[in-house]
Write a structure and sequence with these properties.
The chain is α/β, with parallel strands linked by helices and about 400 residues long. It is about 40% helix and about 20% strand. β4, α2 and β5 form a beta-alpha-beta unit.
């Protein structure tokens, strides 16, 4: 049994990372009502797709995965997409039952499902509750209807409010929404209004992301043609500062670069990624990490279905070297505003493995630049306020050139 980092993050090191069994499970549902203009996720418009055949294939992958790499328990489940809530109530119930059949869920499991506003009717919410889901993350993005249309969303701002009301009425208390900033034609005044409306919902968790123009998206094609009116960098920085100020003033803890929560409502599943711990990844295009190996599944829906009939539907996998794993530990771990701890580093990479011995030059340089600060007890490092604003620069410093 390996050591798990506890809430106070003082767990003693026991066995190195490459022996840890996953206790987190990610499952990908690649279907959407439509494709947003900025989205490069592995997702497909649901109409005409073989959804039931996909769920059959997904259960076959669950069965093979649980047999090949059994675990004592699953502490967190995250169902992402796509939009998992495009499943109808019967499909939802069937899918969630298959998860319970193949994985030993802990009594206090955090069970998250992503949802788009307007896709969670009472029957579907009931199926989700009965199937074990206890946390919903809604993709609100903005409360400005004009901006919603511009980025290819088909819901309106009022749909967010109604969806949250319905979820609360169905018994869901652990709710989150995503907001985006740096959108085309978005002004700071738009963001101020969206943040005010988001805070009126009185939710325990908010995720706040800047737009990234990714290849193979409509936005990328527009950007290449000079037809994507993005805010200037200074205005985008002002938006991010405004988000931090408003959420902090409202009593939320800024616990990760893009995430804010009331105490006890931090995303346990995503913290698995940020602490570089292993996790199962199931479904078309899903990524997983276990026993020192990262894998990615076949992306296409039908190719995934076909492959899952015969084997685990892997597209590729590779062993993670100790150096790569240590770099990953620093780059994702420093996203957490609590920072990285020397004891956690030793727990993942073996007793006697010292943080400063591996990354001393980078740590000294970044500390000297005012981007990191040293934590005395327990020993570690975290971003300074300036480092939060220049996170990518900090993270890149830990890559072996």
């Amino acid at each position: 049994m390996h050591a798990r980092t506890t809430n106070d993050r003082t767990a003693a090191p026991v066995t190195p990372l490459h022996t840890w069994k996953p206790r987190a499970l990610y499952i990908h549902i690649p279907f959407c009502t439509n494709k947003c203009f900025y989205c490069d996720f592995n997702s497909y418009v649901a109409e005409g797709q073989p959804i039931d055949a996909y769920l059959d294939a997904l259960e076959r992958e669950m069965e093979r995965t649980a047999a090949a790499l059994p675990t004592e328990r699953i502490d967190t489940v995250f169902v992402g997409g796509g939009t998992p809530t495009v499943l109808n109530p019967a499909q939802m119930a069937r899918f969630l039952a298959s998860v319970r059949r193949h994985f030993p869920l802990a009594p206090d499991v955090e069970y998250t499902m992503e949802a788009n506003p307007g896709t969670t009717d009472p029957a579907k919410l009931t199926a989700m509750r009965e199937g074990g889901v206890n946390r919903i993350s809604f993709g609100a993005q903005t409360f400005d209807n004009g901006l919603l249309k511009m980025i290819g969303r088909i819901h309106e701002a009022d749909d967010v409010v109604r969806s949250i009301e319905s979820a609360k009425a169905a018994g869901f208390a652990n709710l989150s929404i995503d907001l985006m900033f740096g959108l085309p034609n978005q002004k700071l005044s738009h963001l101020r209004d969206s943040v005010s409306r988001a805070l009126e919902l009185d939710l325990p968790h908010y995720s706040l992301y800047s737009l990234k123009v990714e290849e193979n998206t409509l936005f990328h094609r527009l950007y290449e043609r000079g037809e994507l009116p993005l805010p200037e960098e200074e205005e985008e920085i002002s938006m991010y500062r405004h988000l931090i100020e408003r959420l902090t003033e409202a009593g939320y803890r800024h616990y990760e670069i893009s995430n804010f929560a009331r105490p006890g409502y931090e995303s346990r599943h995503n913290t698995t990624y940020w602490r570089n711990e292993p996790y199962y990844g199931l479904g078309a295009g899903a990524h997983g990490y276990a026993l020192g190996v990262r894998h990615m599944n076949i992306k296409g829906v039908q190719p995934y279905i076909d492959a899952a009939r015969e084997r685990l539907p892997r597209l590729e996998s590779h062993e993670v070297s100790p150096q790569e794993a240590m770099e990953d530990f620093m780059m994702v771990g420093l996203r957490l505003l609590g920072g990285v701890l020397a004891a956690d580093f030793a727990a993942q990479f073996g007793d006697g493995t010292r943080l400063e011995e591996r990354f001393g030059d980078a740590l000294r340089r970044l500390t000297g630049q005012g981007l990191l600060e040293r934590l005395p007890q327990p020993e570690g490092y975290r971003l300074t306020p300036q480092g939060v604003m220049l996170g990518n620069e900090v993270f890149a410093a830990f890559l072996d050139p």
